[in-house]
Design brief:
Length: about 400
């Protein structure tokens, strides 16, 4: 009898919530590349869902994990820990100065849920305002502020949330009332197509929150740690959120989430107001500390801005005159190629025929979130492959 393959086992046991893109089984990774069971390599322009910002198996992060795994992996939050303290200090050193406190969690959605809880506790109000096409995760709280109807269907009722048109400042002004606990938004929307928030919309968000006693929660889960060419996307805008949510790049590939908050919010917190068994483990903190050192010491934040602009220009050049391309946009190494057709066949052919992994963002957008360590040669390879895969589509 034929042996059951890894793909078949995953499909049988883990199937149900994920549509797979092909039968390949990834077994290892290094830098911008991942390798399948047959030794075939793929250029990962999606950074494993935007997480491998330092590339796969970054040497500094790997070494820190290995060393900490052999020293101490767990330490509950009621005891102090050297790595947790060092990581917390390193993190607040790179965060906007008005956010000196952090709660450590394990994922993006968990960070959002914690932020929503803090907003309710601080304001003693219950309702939220979020944006059309915003994505914040799949737990009940995070799902409430997420817009996409197909993700929400079957799970309602969720937390009371009004979704206003992204970038419609007048609609936002109308929606925020004295019942609003917080406005939740991304500065650059990731999952729904790399949509960049306008200065007017973002400033209005801050202003109406301040005027009406609501908090502004900015989701930097995808945009944080240099993805857009600054440490955090808010730095492009001048806005100062009350809470900022982080994950993806935070642990350098290790699962980690966090949310940072102001001194005023810190004042309403009491022991037990929130908690997490795994959040802030020494193992995660060792990884996070090594990751922050790498972003800083390897000059990756500035590099992301420069390489991102180059990559967008190269894509524009390679795809010039291609009727199926509607738009090419982005900020730093967060890039969208919007098509006039479905993106799924492009993603499949890119991976299976051209050895390049990219991401969708909605039905027609090809999204690129390459590791910040990507080289110019790898960008070149990726751009050529993308141009070929799009040009091969039937017109
Ligand atoms: C902007 C944003 N917020 C929240 C999340 C949810 O993070 P997680 O999948 O770690 O729960 C994501 C994940 O893609 C995201 O891109």
């Amino acid at each position: 009898m034929a042996q059951t393959t890894h793909a078949q086992i995953e499909e049988r046991v883990l199937g149900g919530t994920t549509a797979r893109r092909g039968d390949i089984v990834i077994v290892s990774g290094e830098g911008c590349w991942v390798y399948d069971e047959d030794g075939k390599k793929y250029l990962d322009l999606g950074s494993a869902q935007g997480v491998a910002m330092l590339g796969h198996c970054h040497a500094g992060v790997t070494e820190a994990i290995q060393e900490q795994a052999a020293t101490l992996t767990l330490c509950p939050s009621y005891l102090y820990n050297d790595k947790r303290a060092e990581f917390a200090k390193a993190l607040v050193d790179v965060l906007p100065k008005h956010l000196p406190h952090v709660f450590l969690a394990n994922s993006g959605a968990e960070a959002i849920d914690g932020a929503l809880k803090f907003a309710r506790l601080f304001t003693r109000r219950s309702a939220f305002v979020a944006t059309t096409r915003g994505f914040h995760g799949r737990t009940m709280g995070a799902l409430s502020v997420t817009w996409e109807p197909k993700y929400r269907e079957g799970f309602e009722p969720l937390l009371a949330t009004a979704h206003v048109q992204f970038n419609d400042a007048a609609a936002l002004d109308k929606a925020v009332t004295d019942k609003t606990a917080a406005v939740v938004l991304e500065v650059v929307q990731g999952e729904s197509g790399v949509n960049i928030g306008t200065p007017d919309f973002l400033k209005t968000a801050q202003q109406v929150c301040r005027e009406r006693g609501a908090l502004l929660i900015v989701d930097e889960i995808q945009t944080g740690f240099g993805r857009t060419g600054k440490w955090f996307a808010v730095e492009h805008t001048g806005i100062e959120p009350d809470i900022m949510c982080l994950a993806k790049g935070l642990g350098g590939g290790f699962p980690m989430g966090a949310f940072a908050y102001t001194k005023t919010i810190r004042e309403v917190l009491t022991p037990g107001a929130h908690g997490s068994t795994f959040g802030g483990s020494p193992l995660a903190c060792a990884a996070g500390l090594a990751a922050i050192q790498a972003y800083r010491d390897e000059g990756l934040i500035k590099r992301s801005g420069i390489l991102g602009a180059n990559m967008r220009n190269q894509l524009r050049g390679a795809l010039e005159g291609v009727a199926l391309v509607r738009d090419i946009r982005g900020l730093g190494l967060m890039i969208a190629v919007e098509l006039r057709t479905k993106v799924a066949p492009v993603l499949k052919s890119l991976m299976l025929s051209h050895g390049v992994i990219a991401l969708p963002a909605g039905p027609t957008v090809l999204r690129l979130l390459p590791p910040l360590v990507i080289t110019e040669k790898e960008i070149d390879l990726g751009v050529q492959a993308i141009a070929k895969a799009i040009k091969e589509l039937p017109a």
